[in-house]
Amino acid sequence: MRAELGDVTRFEGVDHVIAYAGLDPRTVQSGAFVGQKHLSKRGPGALRHVLYLAAVGAVRCRPEWRQRYQRLLDRGRPKKEALTILSRAVLKVVYHLLRTGTSYDPGALAALKPGPAPGRA
Fold first, then answer.
1. Helix, strand, coil share (%) of the chain residues, nearest 5
2. From CA 72, how far away is CA 117, in angstroms rounded?
3. Is 95 within 8 Å of 14 (Cβ atoms)?
4. What is the C-alpha radius of gyration for the chain, rounded to an integer number of angstroms?
5. Mean per-residue pLDDT for 45-65?
6. Which residues pair with 34 in a beta bridge?
7. What's the number of CA atoms in the CB half-sphere (13 Å) around residue 94?
8. Model-level pTM?
């Protein structure tokens, strides 16, 4: 993951890292036609794959990630979509840890309250 991201200081913020990884939603549109939102899938596919596997591992081994996963499932998200959402969250955490040089604190993650899910009402 570190090799695919490179130097994280080159990104202006977490949104730029998410866009680089291809985990940002893009709307398919042409003229008056506006389609559904999908992941842009721009950037290294290996990074998205590693983040997805990290999300799977986090859900299996870490209770704070398992709770977030279960919350997404309870809201009606499909399993794969929930893991993709969590892979985006993993990227945010990794970016923060690399920028600040701090170590992972599960208590700080459990204290965070996720906002409303984008794209769903």
1. 60, 10, 30
2. 9
3. yes
4. 15
5. 95
6. 29
7. 23
8. 0.82
